[in-house]
Amino acid sequence: MGQVTEVVNAVSGLIRSLVYAAAVCGVGYGGGWLYTHYWSHGVSTAQLQQARQEIAELQHQLQLKDMHIDQLDTALHLLKVDQRVAELRVLRQEFVPGLDRVISEISFVEMNDQGEPIDVPRKFTIEGDTVYLDYWVVKFEDRYIEQSAVNRATSICLFRKVFGEYQRPAEGFDLDAVNMRPAAYARGKEISDFERRIWGDFWNIAHSPEKATELGIRAAHGQASYTKLRPGVTYRLSLRASDGMTIQPIGNGEPPVVGTLHHHLL
Predict the structure, then answer these.
(1) Residue 48's CB: how many other CB atoms inside 10 A?
(2) How far apart are CA 131 and CA 191, in angstroms?
(3) pTM of the model
(4) Total domain count for the chain?
(5) CB atoms < 10 A from the CB of 244, how many?
(6) What is the pLDDT of residues 2-55, one digit of tens each?
(7) Which domain-ending residue is among 79, 101, 124?
(8) Are 30 and 62 in contact (CB under 8 A)?
């Protein structure tokens, strides 16, 4: 996947550079041509108006090319994020007589490819010593691909909720904030209108299966992976579009007791 991504990056960068260079040259050449043919020889009001219209059209074409470049950038970035990684640490566990059960205080933080946090760690208190992590894997159908220039192989992976065995999923804590772009998909700049529309479309389907069908977006599957927690242990969570979530303790220790619950979302 790394070599393929590098090739895609190189080709995409070359295409964007050529498109942008051609557009800028077009505007520059157009301005020079207009000066040579109009202003240097004295022009009428009608000729000036025509010149302004032609310049405006060239500027419009440049804006369209900028939008196309942004679409390529967005589509490529979505394609590149084929895995999301997080760490879950067990901060504290104790038995609560009033509840007649164990409660677990945990922290969750997402990591980048270099193993560095990309967000502020968040703390949650769940009921029980078994944690459930609900996630979605979402794919795009041909209808959406044709309209939005999204690559056919693109999937979106979401960390949805975390909860304990004594809690219902609806009582779980949100991980990826609803109606927001997850930090893993950020590109270090303000979100563009095109990307905002994609994420807007995506979150709309979470509440409307009919809207999902209309747009051509589908949740391929939703699952909840779980593991029994041990005090002081940190767990690595790896979520891939191809094979779902894996949970492994970091460092030496006994193999975790893990499992996966399947549930279709849309």
Answers:
(1) 13
(2) 33
(3) 0.61
(4) 2
(5) 16
(6) 444 454 455 455 445 544 555 445 545 555 555 555 555 555 777 778 878 888
(7) 79
(8) no
